[in-house]
Amino acid sequence: MAVQLNTLVRGACEQVLPMPPLAAAVPDVRRRAGAVLAAWQVSPEIVEDALLVVSELLTNAIVHALPPAMLRLSWIHDAGLGTLRIEVTDAGPARTAGQPPAGIDPDEHGRGEEIVHALATRYGMDVRPGGITRWADLVAV
C-alpha cells in the first residue's frame, strides 16, 4: 500500500512591532509593517488592505486604549492560500464605556471598525486580564 505525503510547503512568519503611544507614530509603524510584508512576499492583492487595517487598529489603540500597544503580524502560506493575521494588543480602555475621547471630532472618527470588518475575512477581539487584542485575518488565494 502506497502512502502519499503532503509535499506542499507550509511557511509561517511572525513579526512584533512595538507602538509608541503617539498618534504621529502610526505612519512610521505602518511603513515598517509594509517593509515586513514585502520581505515576506505577502500576496500583493491584500497588502494595501492589510496596511489600512494596520492603521485603523493602531489608531484605535492610540485613541481609545492605555499604552503600551503592540502590533503583531503573522503570515501563513499553505496549500496555495495565504493568511495574514494582524493583531494589535493594548492595555485596555482608557475611559469608561460611553465616555468620548477628549478633543476628538466624532465626525472624523468612528469608522475604523467598519473598515476593518469590510476588509477582513475574519476579525475579533480577545479580552484578557491586563489587555485587549483586536485582530483581523486577510486571506489571499
Present the secondary structure layout.
Layout: E1 11-19, H1 26-39, H2 44-64, E2 69-78, E3 81-90, H3 112-119, E4 122-128, E5 131-140
Helix pairs in contact: 1-2, 2-3
Describe the structure.
This protein is 30% helix and 33% strand. It contains three helices and five strands, in the order E-H-H-E-E-H-E-E. A five-stranded antiparallel sheet has the order 1-2-3-5-4, with helices on one face. Helix 1 runs antiparallel to helix 2 and helix 2 packs antiparallel against helix 3. The longest helix has 21 residues. The protein is globular.
Largest sheet: 5 strands, antiparallel
Structural class, by secondary structure, is alpha+beta
Average predicted local confidence, pLDDT: 86
- Strand portion, in percent? 25-35%
What is the count of DSSP helices, taking H or I runs of 4+ residues? 3
Radius of gyration: 17 Å
Overall helicity? 25-40%
Distance between the termini: 34 Å
The spatial strand order of the largest sheet comes to 1-2-3-5-4
Low-confidence runs of at least 5 consecutive residues: 1-9
Helix-strand topology string: EHHEEHEE
The count of DSSP E runs of length 2 or more, i.e. the number of strands, is 5
Shape: globular
The gist of it:
By secondary structure, the chain is an alpha+beta fold.
